Structure formats: structure tokens, C-alpha cells
Amino acid sequence: MVQKRLQELWYDEKGIVTVEYALLLSVLVVSMASVWQMLRAAIAHAVADAANAISGG
Global pTM? Predict the structure, then answer.
């Protein structure tokens, strides 16, 4: 059933647009995930620096 639906989308012009949007969305999700990881690391580093400064270290 899924394969039949994918074939219909593949041969339909509207299906091609849907696939393009799906690819764009997947690139956006991967990009946001990597940004989230970098932001998480930066926040953890800032909190550790603040904790060291408060404790006098």
C-alpha cells in the first residue's frame, strides 16, 4: 500500500513537489539537530564556567 502511494506520488507532478518539500524538511531537521547540539554544548560550558566563578575556582 505504501509502495503504491509512493509510486503515485513519483509520477504525479504534485507528488514531486511533495517529495521536494519532504527533502527540504529533512535537511532543515538535520540542520536544526546539529545546531541544537552545538547550542547545548555552549550552554553547558557557560554554566560550568559560571559555577566555577561562583565557587571561587
Answer: 0.56
